[in-house]
From TrEMBL:
It comes from the Bacteria. It comes from Jejubacter calystegiae. One of its GO terms (molecular function) is metal ion binding. Residues 4-115 form the VOC domain. Keywords: Metal-binding, Transferase. This is Fosfomycin resistance glutathione transferase. It holds the Pfam family Glyoxalase. InterPro entries: Fosfomycin_Res_Enzymes, Glyas_Bleomycin-R_OHBP_Dase, Glyas_Fos-R_dOase_dom, VOC_core.
Length: 136
């Protein structure tokens, strides 16, 4: 069972410009930044900005996706249900928390994720991304 929207990841062509927009102009709280990304937040929203050079070239596939939360106990059941529905996977999980990346019928990139911004930041404090900084 889905429990809510987990986070938004936006592929960006200029990380510094995008951080400035979301932090300085829109007022999101800057939680962490590293060489190729940043985590920002608002109450109830976790936003990840991820540098993707394909955004500069106009390639159709980038890292922009929408992640839905699920309970850890329900994760495998949900993944099995998605696989039984013949969804296509578009990425393998390489970050904290269980994730399953899949496409909807119109090829929108979606993710099923167990975890939160606080669990991700805790993991990143233990094993930071390259040049990662934290803002408390």
């Amino acid at each position: 069972m889905l429990t809510g929207l987990n986070h938004l990841t936006l592929a960006v062509s200029d990380l510094t410009r995008s951080i400035g927009f979301y932090h300085d102009i829109l007022g999101l709280k800057l939680e962490a930044r590293w060489e190729t990304g940043a985590y920002l937040s608002l109450p109830g929203l976790w936003l990840c900005l991820s540098f993707d050079p394909r955004r500069q070239t106009g390639e159709p596939r980038d890292y922009t996706h929408y992640a839905f939360s699920t309970d850890g106990a329900e994760f495998e059941t949900m993944v099995n249900k998605l696989r039984a529905g013949c969804v296509r996977e578009w990425k393998r999980n390489t970050s904290e928390g269980e994730s399953f990346y899949f496409l909807d019928p119109d090829s929108h990139q979606l993710e099923l994720h167990v975890g939160s911004l606080s669990s991700r930041l805790a993991q990143c404090r233990r094993a930071p991304y390259k040049n990662m900084q934290f803002f408390d």
